[in-house]
Design brief:
about 350 residues, alpha/beta, Rossmann fold, 2 domains, 6-stranded parallel β-sheet, about 35% helix, about 15% strand
C-alpha cells in the first residue's frame, strides 16, 4: 500500500496562549478534530498555559521564532523564513497582536486565516484610525473569521474587508445538562479574566446596590492583573464578606450549578463564552448591553441587559434576585436558545471546513 499523506499542518499564532476565550475555543476545536490536523502553535509573548487543555495525543509542536518587539520589518522577514521552512497548510492568526504575520503569509505564499474576537480597552469604545487602515491593508487577502454579527459589520463596513465569515462560538451542551443545585442564598456568578475591559469594579458596585437589602453572594471566577485592586475595592465597599474570588477554574462548567444568576459587566465584548455557558446551564443573565449579547440571549432575557452603568446593572440584578420564578423562566428560555443556535458540533464542523478550504 502507498504511504498515507500526513494530516494538514495548521500554524496558529496567538498574541498569548494563556487561558482566554480564543484559546479555549481553539483547544476545544483541536481536541474534537483529533489527528485530522497537525498543529504548530506560536505565542507572541511566549506564554503557553492553555496548552494544558490540549489532548496529550494531539500532534503539536512549538516552532522557535525570534520575535523582537517593535521590529516589524525584521519580524516579517523572520516570520516569512519560518513559513517557507514549515510550509503549513494554512496560517491561522488571532487578533490584533498577531497582525505582523499577515505580510509574511503573503510573501511566503501561504493561505491565511485571521480570527478576530474583539478588542482590548484601547478599542473598546471606538476604532483607532491607524489600526483600521492597518487591518484594511494587511488583511485584504486573508479570510477573516468573526464570532459576532457586531464584528462582522465592523470588518465589512469599517475595515472594508472582502472575505469575512461569521462563525458563532459553540458550547458543549451536554457538559451543562445537569440540573442546577440551588442554595438558600442566591448566588450571582461571573467568569471572566480579571482585566480592565471586563470592568469588574462596575459589578462590585452593582452588587453592593443589589445586595444592600437582599441576601445574596457574589462569586468572581478568573484571574488576572486587576485582582488585587478588585479585592481592595470589595473591602472599601463593605462587601468583602459576601464576595468570593475563586481564581482560575479549569472546568468552568463545574461552577454554574452553584449560580442562580450570571452577570457580566464588561465595557466591550463580542460573543462572550460566559454568556453561552450561562445559557447552556439554564441560567438568567444580567449584563451590560455590548457586542452580540442581546442577540445571543433569549428575547425574554433582553430586559436585563443594561447601559454601562453600575446602578442600572444593580437594578437588573435586584429584579432577578427578587423573583425565583422569573429566574427559572429566563434560564429555561436561554437553555432552549442555546440548543437551537449554539451547539458546539456545528462550530467544529464549520472550522474544519474552513481549515480545509477553499477560502474564497
Amino acid at each position: 500500500m502507498p504511504p498515507t499523506s500526513p494530516a494538514p499542518l495548521l500554524l496558529s499564532v496567538f498574541p498569548t496562549f494563556a487561558m482566554g476565550g480564543a484559546q479555549m475555543r481553539f483547544t476545544t476545536i483541536a481536541n474534537q478534530l483529533g489527528d485530522r490536523f497537525r498543529h504548530a502553535i506560536i505565542a507572541m509573548n511566549g506564554e503557553h498555559a492553555a496548552a494544558a487543555r490540549l489532548a496529550a495525543s494531539l500532534p503539536v509542536s512549538r516552532p522557535e521564532v525570534g520575535i523582537r518587539k517593535g521590529d516589524m520589518a525584521g519580524n516579517v522577514r523572520r516570520f516569512t523564513r519560518l513559513l517557507r521552512q514549515v510550509r503549513p497548510h494554512a496560517l491561522v492568526t488571532h487578533n490584533w497582536g498577531s497582525i505582523e504575520w499577515a505580510p509574511a503569509a503573503r510573501l511566503a505564499g501561504i493561505r491565511h486565516i485571521h480570527i478576530e474576537d474583539g478588542f482590548g480597552p484601547e478599542e473598546g469604545q471606538r476604532q483607532l484610525r491607524r489600526r483600521v487602515w492597518t487591518r484594511r491593508l494587511l488583511l485584504r487577502r486573508a479570510t477573516v473569521v468573526v464570532p459576532s454579527r457586531t464584528l462582522h459589520a465592523i470588518a465589512t463596513g469599517i475595515w472594508r474587508l472582502p472575505q469575512v465569515r461569521y462563525i458563532p462560538n459553540g458550547i458543549d451542551l451536554a457538559a451543562f445538562a445537569a440540573a442546577p443545585a440551588r442554595g438558600e442564598i442566591p448566588v450571582i456568578g461571573t467568569v471572566a479574566a480579571l482585566r480592565p475591559e471586563k470592568n469588574l469594579g462596575r459589578l462590585l458596585h452593582a452588587f453592593q446596590r443589589a445586595a444592600a437589602s437582599r441576601p445574596a453572594r457574589l462569586v468572581i471566577a478568573g484571574d488576572g492583573p486587576a485582582r488585587t485592586g478588585l479585592e481592595a475595592l470589595a473591602g472599601e465597599l463593605g462587601i468583602a464578606d459576601r464576595v468570593r474570588f475563586a481564581g482560575y477554574v479549569a472546568r468552568p462548567q463545574t461552577l454554574y450549578p452553584g449560580f442562580d444568576i450570571v452577570a457580566l459587566s464588561s465595557d466591550t465584548e463580542q460573543m462572550p463564552m460566559a454568556v453561552l455557558e450561562a445559557m447552556a446551564a439554564g441560567l438568567p443573565v444580567a449584563a451590560t448591553d455590548v457586542g452580540d449579547i442581546r442577540a445571543m440571549v433569549a428575547a425574554e432575557n433582553a430586559t436585563y441587559l443594561t447601559r454601562l452603568d453600575p446602578a442600572a446593572l444593580g437594578d437588573a440584578l435586584g429584579a432577578l434576585l427578587d423573583d425565583p420564578a422569573l429566574r427559572a423562566r429566563l434560564g429555561a428560555a436561554n437553555r432552549a436558545r442555546a440548543e437551537q443556535e449554539y451547539d458546539q458540533a456545528a462550530m467544529v464542523a464549520a472550522y474544519e471546513a474552513l481549515y480545509r478550504g477553499p477560502l474564497a
